[in-house]
Design a protein that fits this description.
The structure is a single chain. This protein is mainly β and 128 residues long. The chain has one helix and ten strands, in the order E-E-E-H-E-E-E-E-E-E-E. Strands 1, 4, 7, 8 and 10 form a five-stranded antiparallel sheet that branches. The protein has a five-stranded antiparallel sheet with strand order 2-3-9-5-6. It starts with 5 loop residues before the first strand and ends with a strand. The relative contact order is 0.34.
């Protein structure tokens, strides 16, 4: 069986939903982590997201959107997302957003009481 070719990881930090206004839980005030085509930074026609490490405020949940459409709901917004049976396929123009169920907070950020969400996506070339 052929192995998929890994393309490495991509890291993004949380931003306020004030401008994108896509957060289904806290429209205009929530936390979002957005991977647009520039952030994904690949010249491939299609890639596969096979693993995501997500970290955000304890007690939160996350809605994952692809091009504004719901893909997955993660009930604990500080754990890993991993579905090797149904990896997320992404094209060159796709955007993936992670939207938290908690409101945006101002810095300074720390690991216990004021956590800025962060997501690391692991991508690879899809298997045929």
């Amino acid at each position: 069986m052929p192995l998929a070719k890994p393309l490495g990881s991509r890291l993004q930090l949380g931003v306020s939903d004030a401008l994108p206004q896509i957060n289904p839980f806290n429209l205009g005030t929530g936390w979002d982590v957005i991977f647009d085509p520039v952030a994904l930074n690949t010249n491939q026609t299609q890639v596969e997201m096979y693993h995501a490490s997500i970290d955000g405020p304890v007690g939160s949940a996350v809605q994952i959107l692809i091009n504004g459409n719901e893909w997955e709901f993660v009930p604990q917004g500080w754990q890993n997302y991993d579905d090797p049976v149904q990896p997320m396929l992404l094209g060159q123009t796709d955007t993936v957003a992670f939207c938290w169920t908690v409101p945006f907070t101002s810095g300074p950020y720390n690991r216990t009481s004021n956590i800025q969400p962060r997501v690391t996506l692991w991508i690879r070339l899809p298997l045929d």
